[in-house]
Write a structure and sequence with these properties.
oxidoreductase activity; alpha/beta; SDR_oxidoreductase; oxidoreductase; seven-stranded parallel sheet; 8 helices; SDR_fam; NAD(P)-bd_dom_sf
Length: 250
């Protein structure tokens, strides 16, 4: 069976995607910063590896240990919610190092084997916030929009080598750790600037409104990744989740 390498498998989209592909009989290389063997069902087709996408040595070690793969899913990422004025440059660098540069580094690490075999699929998980502008998401949106643009151009570069490149655009996902981790990072960085207090209240009211049925589940993202991995005719950009689909259709 084919082999898939997924980054950011400790929770949310990455964890559910690993479960999905294992259930479908694939060989799964599940990577995470701090490996936890009990997160996924034991299987001879499962390998859990440590991986920090901001560390070149960690990337090289993980790709070497993984061996030959057929699909790379760049899912690892960190969230951020604040006005640009309240975002320290150190945080901007952290966001881009993980969400953007980490994605690029992983792609560069696997491209030689894909190009040699003239086959391979690259799937970058970004966000539906790149489809519509939202308050307090300027830096996060920029980090993900850069990956969208990267993927579009990369698709042209890699098509002659039989390599496919795609983007999955999830919507708001209450069932993941995104919001909690973003709020923790925000607290550590000093919180929101006071002049934006009213805007912040409005944003949090929007984030907590609506039912879960109107938003994105990890299963939606796993299903989108599955379709792309197994269907050569899949569109290059695919929304995942009811809210993402609605935004994508305009």
């Amino acid at each position: 069976m084919p082999t898939i390498l997924i980054t950011g498998c400790s929770s949310g989209f990455g964890l559910e995607t690993a479960r999905h592909f294992l259930a479908k009989g694939w060989t799964v290389i599940a990577t995470m910063r701090t490996p936890k063997a009990d997160l996924l069902p034991a299987s001879e087709r499962l390998t859990i590896l440590p991986l920090d996408v901001t560390d070149p040595a960690s990337i090289a070690a993980a790709v070497a240990a993984a061996g030959e793969i057929d699909v790379l899913v760049n899912n690892a990422g960190i969230g951020w919610l604040n006005a640009l004025e309240g975002t320290p440059i150190s945080v901007v660098r952290d966001i881009f190092e993980t969400n953007t540069i980490g994605t690029i580094a992983m792609i560069q690490a696997v491209l030689p084997q894909f190009r040699t075999r003239r086959a391979g699929v690259i799937i970058n998980v970004t966000s539906s916030v790149t489809l519509k502008n939202y308050d307090l998401l300027s830096v996060y949106t920029a980090s993900k929009a850069a990956v969208n643009a990267l993927t579009e151009v990369m698709a042209l570069e890699l098509a002659p080598f039989g390599i496919r490149s795609h983007v999955v655009l999830p919507g708001q996902a209450p069932g993941t750790a995104f919001s909690a981790s973003a709020r923790e990072r925000l607290t550590q960085a000093g919180g929101f600037p006071e002049p934006y207090a009213e805007m912040v209240e409005g944003v949090f009211a929007r984030l907590t409104s609506g039912s879960g049925e109107e938003k994105t589940r990890p299963e939606d993202v796993a299903a989108a990744i599955w379709r792309i991995a197994t269907d050569p005719t899949a569109p290059m950009c695919m929304p995942a989740g009811a809210d993402a689909v609605a935004l994508f259709k305009g």
